[in-house]
Amino acid sequence: MIAPAMSDIHHDTRHCCFLVGGDCFAVASTGVTEVLRDGRITRVPHAAEAVIGLLHLRGRIVPVIDMRRRLGLIDAESSASRTHLVIRLHDDWYSLLVDEMLDVIEVADHQIEHPSKPSPDTPNDAVTGVFADAGRLVYFLDPQRIVQPLARQRELLLKRQGAPNGTV
């Protein structure tokens, strides 16, 4: 029997699915550290618009990214219960504040449709692919692309305010 070529092997990848503004999004489960239902958020000045504060999590200071704001959607009602999806990106942790956690799905890489290259300054620049799953579309997000524009926004804000060398 002949072994299939590496390009012929299809890998299934597990993704954590969640709702934001009525749409289904997913990130690779390998980067997900935990899911929290509650968490006291401390507001911080000079943060990018989508960074709504910091979460203290067992000795770690974790930036909280409101995914509604990051994706350019309407803010949730302040009384609405939301969930923290804590992800690890290299050695840093981030909380993605989502409307609701759904489930974990396994999708073969070849089943994901990849969009044309998005503009780097649009809210949906973090979307790397889409998959039709049981009556819903799942938009796959790249955590690196979620975080990078926020750091750039903060640097620009600090420069406009005259903070030397990006410090406060």
| CATH-defined architecture | Beta Barrel
The strands making up the biggest β-sheet line up spatially as: 3-7-8-6-5-4
Which fold name is given in CATH as the topology? OB fold (Dihydrolipoamide Acetyltransferase, E2P)
- Give the percentage of residues in beta strands: 35-45%
Order of helices and strands: EEEEEEHEEEEEH
Number of strands: 11
Structural class: mainly beta
Gross morphology is globular
Under the CATH scheme, which class? Mainly Beta
Supply Rg: 18 Å
The largest sheet, given as strand count, sense and whether it forms a barrel, is: 6 strands, mixed
Unreliable segments of 5+ consecutive residues: 1-9
- Count of DSSP H/I helices: 2
Percent helix: 10-25%
CATH superfamily: CheA-289, Domain 4
The assembly state of the depicted protein chains is: single chain
First-to-last CA distance? 64 Å
Number of domains: 1
Mean pLDDT score, rounded? Answer: 82
Layout of helices and strands:
Layout: E1 12-20, E2 23-28, E3 32-36, E4 41-42, E5 51-57, E6 60-66, H1 67-70, E7 83-89, E8 92-98, E9 100-108, E10 127-133, E11 136-141, H2 143-160
Task: Please describe what this structure looks like.
The chain is mainly β and 168 residues long. 13% of the residues lie in helices and 43% in strands. It has helices spanning 67-70, 143-160; strands at 12-20, 23-28, 32-36, 41-42, 51-57, 60-66, 83-89, 92-98, 100-108, 127-133, 136-141. The strands form two sheets. A six-stranded mixed β-sheet has the order 3-7-8-6-5-4. The protein has a five-stranded mixed β-sheet with strand order 9-1-2-11-10. β5 (51-57) and β6 (60-66) form a beta hairpin. Residues 1-9 have low confidence and may be disordered.
